[in-house]
Design a protein that fits this description.
256 residues, mainly beta, Lipocalin, 2 domains, ten-stranded mixed beta sheet, six-stranded antiparallel beta sheet
C-alpha cells in the first residue's frame, strides 16, 4: 500500500531527528572532555624515524575506562586516531618525530581531541608492570599480586590500594586498571595542572609518571601543552623506534 504524504512526512522528520540526535550526542561528548583528563593508551601503530614519513596515520587503544569530571565516559577499547606531522630522518644530529592525536572513536562516536603527552613506556616496561614483584606471587591468586607501576608506584591488589613513596595515592580496580590522583613532577617536566585534584584512569602508570621509560636516549622535546597545541615532538640522538604495544599517558589540553 503506498505511503500517504502524512506518513512520509513523519518518517522524514523522524530520520532527521535521529541524525540530529547522533550529531548532538557526539558534539556533547567533544565539549565535555575537560582539560586535564588523563587518557592511557597502547600504541597499535609502531613509530620509526628511518622508515616513517609525515602524514602517516597512527592509532592507539584506550586501555582503561575513563570517566571525566563531567561524567562523560570513554570506554576501554576505544580507538585513538592521529597522524605524523613531520619526521626528521636519522643523521649526525639524531632524529625527530612530530605527531598529533586528534580524535577518539568510541562506539560510533568520533570525538575531536587535543592532547599532550605526559609519559611514554616501552613495550617491555608495559609488560613488566603487569608482572608480580612479591616472592610468593606464584602461589597467590592473581588478585593478590603486588605489582609495580611504570614510575615506581606499588599496587597491592589484595588491598585494592596503590602506594607511592609518600603513601597511599589511589586504588586498584579488580580486572585491571588503576585510579589515582596525578602528582606534579616539575623536576621531570610535569608541573601541576588541571584535574590533578580528581582520581584519574592511568592504567600502568604511576601518580607522578613523567617523561620516557625504557629508552634513555629518547626525550619528549615538546609535550603538546604549548603552542601549537597538541603537537608532540620526540627527539633522539639515534633512530627513534617506538614499538606497537608501548604505553602513552595523554592528557587533554585546550583546543586551539
Amino acid at each position: 500500500m503506498p505511503l500517504t504524504n502524512f506518513a512520509m512526512s513523519v518518517i522524514f522528520r523522524c530520520s532527521r531527528c535521529v541524525v540530529v540526535a547522533a550529531f548532538c550526542s557526539s558534539l556533547l561528548l567533544a565539549q565535555q572532555l575537560p582539560v586535564g583528563t588523563a587518557i592511557p593508551i597502547a600504541l597499535k601503530t609502531g613509530l620509526e624515524a628511518s622508515k616513517d614519513n609525515s602524514d602517516k596515520t597512527i592509532e592507539g587503544e584506550v586501555m582503561q575506562d575513563v570517566t571525566t569530571t563531567t561524567g562523560v565516559k570513554i570506554n576501554q577499547g576505544s580507538r585513538v586516531h592521529g597522524h605524523l606531522i613531520n619526521v626528521t630522518k636519522p643523521s649526525g644530529s639524531g632524529s625527530s618525530i612530530t605527531l598529533k592525536f586528534d580524535a577518539i572513536e568510541d562506539h560510533g562516536h568520533r570525538i575531536p581531541i587535543t592532547v599532550s603527552l605526559v609519559a611514554v613506556a616501552s613495550m617491555m616496561d608495559v609488560s613488566q608492570a603487569g608482572l608480580p614483584v612479591n616472592t610468593n606471587a606464584y602461589t597467590d591468586s592473581i588478585n593478590d599480586w603486588v605489582t609495580r607501576q611504570v614510575g615506581g608506584d606499588i599496587v597491592r591488589r589484595g588491598q585494592g590500594k596503590v602506594f607511592s613513596r609518600t603513601g597511599e595515592v589511589g586504588k586498584w580496580l579488580q580486572g585491571g586498571g588503576v585510579l589515582i590522583k596525578l602528582t606534579p613532577n616539575p623536576a621531570a617536566g610535569c608541573p601541576n595542572g588541571p584535574a590533578y585534584e580528581s582520581e584519574q584512569s592511568v592504567w600502568i602508570f604511576s601518580s607522578d609518571a613523567c617523561g620516557v621509560y625504557g629508552d634513555k636516549k629518547l626525550k619528549i622535546a615538546k609535550s603538546g601543552s604549548s603552542a601549537p597545541m597538541g603537537d608532540i615532538v620526540l627527539q633522539s640522538p639515534k633512530n627513534i623506534e617506538i614499538r606497537g604495544g608501548s604505553g602513552l599517558l595523554l592528557t587533554v589540553v585546550e583546543r586551539p
